[in-house]
Amino acid sequence: MIPRSRVPLYDHSWQWHLRNAFRTAGDLIDALGLPPDTVAVDSEFPLLATRPFVARMEQGNPRDPLLLQILPQARESDEVAGYTGDPLDERSHAEGAGIIHKYHGRVLLVTTGACAVNCRYCFRRHFPYDEARLTTRQWDFMLDYIRRDSAIREVILSGGDPLIMTDDQLSELVHGLESLDQLTHLRIHTRLPVVLPQRVTSGLLELFAGSRLKVIVVIHTNHSRELDDQVASGLGRLAAAGALLLNQSVLLKDVNNNADALCELSWQLSMAGVVPYYLHMLDKVAGAAHFEVSRTGALRLIDEVRDRMPGYLVPRLVSEIPGHPAKQEIR
Ligand SMILES: *Cc1c(COP(=O)(O)O)cnc(C)c1O
Ligand code: SF4
Prior knowledge:
TIM Barrel; 10-stranded mixed beta sheet; globular; binds pyridoxal-5'-phosphate; binds iron/sulfur cluster
């Protein structure tokens, strides 16, 4: 059973929720009634978490799997061998104007640096967003770039979180892409339908339903408790607007590194109409080493999941290796 949300869905607009998200550990610790000795530190990658997401955390539990994803910890400043600022070598694939073109036929656009939550394990936590952000000035450059490579059929909007853009901004972008005949697929990688279900507005649904492009929305959920009735209802409306819904997770120590958690996530995603797509190995980004799950551990886990689940609910375990022509499927 998907739990009911503890905050009303239509209390405020999604923009209000962005403005009024939690930004300090002190406020979050108060709101959750956490032990006052809960250690949280200042970080250059600041704490950021929406109220609907925080409402799904368990009161008084410093080990809550949702909390651990967003609470800055002292261990983040440990220097760990192999963990760097740009683990995917994205800077060398940045073609300018926020374009990252690593894989055949698909091009990724960094539309904004902003997110509604700051995930501590995020591989882009050190990415130079200000240089990468898409501006109107760079718009023509991007369309030209796509025209020059007729193999490109799919545009992936990423970030940051592309749904931080307003419906009007997004609509301008999508209409521009629709004008390129070669494009057939539009993919949107976003955590907003999960951390801020209010973002699924009627404007967004109309944009998707009216597009000639096949829309794929890849949400990002790591634990079944991130899903509640409001999230499920937003996802249902996205599916009704014609979007294919996929999920990607990151395998994170103390958050979801056990077979029960992974299986339950798959079942709940499925109930919400979402197909588990990828389970990513952690990218080795500086500050995230405390989330590491070993390769052997990951293989053992995914085998256990495969033994227990219908095949369509087993995500592909992948890791991203700089220089490879695709994400590498481990199993
Ligand atoms: C992950 C990723 C893609 C999409 O890969 P799929 O395997 O098609 O999901 C495309 N471009 C970049 C830069 C990526 O990191
Ligand atoms: S890009 Fe995704 S994983 Fe990274 S902070 Fe934003 S929502 Fe979290």
